[in-house]
Amino acid sequence: MHGEIVQTYSGFSAALEAFIEGEPYASAEITNNITFGGACNITRNGKLLYTLSYDTEERASSIGKSKQNKNLIPYKIDDANGNKCGQIGIKQADVPFWRLYSFHEMTINSNTYRMYTVGLGKEGLKYPIYCNDTQIALMEKDAVVVNNLDKYDIYAHDRQGAEIAVLFGLYIDITAAANRGTAVTESVRKVYSITTNKELKSKYNPDFKQSCML
Question: From 62, 164, 166, 208, which residue has the greatest number of CB atoms within 10 Å?
């Protein structure tokens, strides 16, 4: 199964469209693309699905916790009725400091997922997504960004995995890749990232994509 997240607008706000198997899945609007902490409204056919917004209470509660239990840049996930149904944040692996790395963790509807960021230089960024020890999806982002508009490719074994990847992708774009306040211009930007941590790099399975296309 293949999906995409395509940024269609960048400026004071930002807009993205998500597709699964070529069909529109959801639209997303980042209401404040100027400063950190803007909310993201996710809709389908004009109806609200989720809202992602910075969780100040969760961040405050993390201050006194150990590094493995801190939730960095936490965003809460509210359903269409405004009730919190999950959260996404950044956590640090429980490993010695010389092997330290971070990952993204999302809890939603009583399930927990982890997404890892693996940089492969000119091959771009790979984001393998796991539920427990089983990989359920892979998101990819090219190292080249055209006209300040981000694009993510998603590969998953089923629709649920693809939908989880969409939420992770939108979180990534809100917090790290939204090109804040930058209007769409004719430009080409190249960003190369290389992961050297062996444990982190092992999370990426180059054969997973092909298994999703069978």
Answer: 166
